[in-house]
Fold this sequence. Notes:
Layout: H1 3-42, E1 45-53, E2 56-63, E3 69-75, E4 79-81, E5 85-87, E6 91-99, H2 102-111, E7 115-122, E8 125-132
Antiparallel strand pairs: 1-2, 2-6, 3-5, 3-7, 4-6, 7-8
Amino acid sequence: MDWAKVSAIIAFIVIIILVGYYNQVYLYFLPSYTQIHNILSTNKFRIDRVIINSTGIYIEASNKMSETITIYNITGPDLWLQKVQVIPPNSIDNFRLSYSNLTQLEENIAKGVENVSITIGIGELNVTEVVSI
């Protein structure tokens, strides 16, 4: 057997292993991708009302999913979540964000430069995202 045949066989085996590995990784992440896609496309978690007063920012959120949503953290330069908030399946709940300087917060929001980091858990999936508001 010459080296060309040996090299071709080794390359074929490596490709088969890589394809198998890719399929396993794909199948591992598919449920998480499906869960995120369902959340974004179905509007099952939404903010219903926001009230701002001198004691904080109060948010009413609806969870119309069959999974519990846990809001672990919301932080920005001028605001933060007081404590972890758990929103049970098929329910509406309220939580409060505190702020350090309301005037500065309003200016940053008006300019679109208030970068807020949000960490939530949906079932067994945790997601962290930074958004500008």
